[in-house]
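Q: Here's a chain of 300 amino acids. Please give me its 3D structure as tokens.
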Amino acid sequence: MAGEYDAITPYHFALNNPISLNDPTGLEAESGGNSEEIKKKSANNSEVPGPNPKPVPQPIVPKPILPVTPPVIKPVDINLIVHGGATKAEENNTFKDASDNLNKNEYNNNATMFEVKGGGRSIVRTINSQPKNSIQTLDVFTHSSQTQLHFNPDQNERFRELYTTDDEEKEDKSTNEGADIGEIKYGKFKSDSVIEFHGCNTGDINVPNNICAEMSKRLYEAGKTDAVVIGHATKSNPNHHKTLQGSDYRHGLRRVYHNGKLLFYTKKEGKISKTAIRLFLKRKEKEVGRHDDTKHKLIK
């Protein structure tokens, strides 16, 4: 090499002609190509001598917003037990014992307990304060008759019952603590709720518009089409049952009402199962208009 370039020193890069020549290996200068060759290299996306081109800014593509899946909220199931309201302390104690027995036997001590301190309006307030479509069961341990739940009068001996109708409430000249079942927000109940009154005669068939029949009708009208109301057909006051160990008042002749009419009756002790209720609801669909009492008896 030195013989071929005796006039050139190592300080003469590309034969001292870096515009036209190049020496990428440091061994020998070579041609950088004419303008046509440069254009061809550029067309073929090859490297082109000269300064690096400025990068072309790329548009910013926003990331897609994925839909947010809402959390699954488990429906609330409330088992509500109401007790008390009697004048005598021993009767309130019996109602409380029966409520505790039911809570233990049926709800594993997880029911919501409410002791009545006022009158019928306190029950209405308790029901209406619950979330919508939440009450699965309502059990009421109070004194009662065919069309009323009875509570101890106020200090002026004025009544404060829970009445079946507003006219009945007005006729009784009830206090502000009295109420009628028309003031209840039935949307608070679930579609297959079970209400049971454990007092006397709420399911008396001799009074067609008893409180069980009327409440079952209001439930149905509120869209709770599989809801039922259960009541005793006979007396069931605390004095009759206070000696029963573990009693929760689910015994004796009880009648089950649906949409204002008798669905079936039973003397079976303990819980009236959802299976039995569904069975009679299906039978009712097939036997519309038939209310022969012999067709409504639950044998087992």
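Q: Can you summarize the key feature?
A: The chain has a mean pLDDT of 81.
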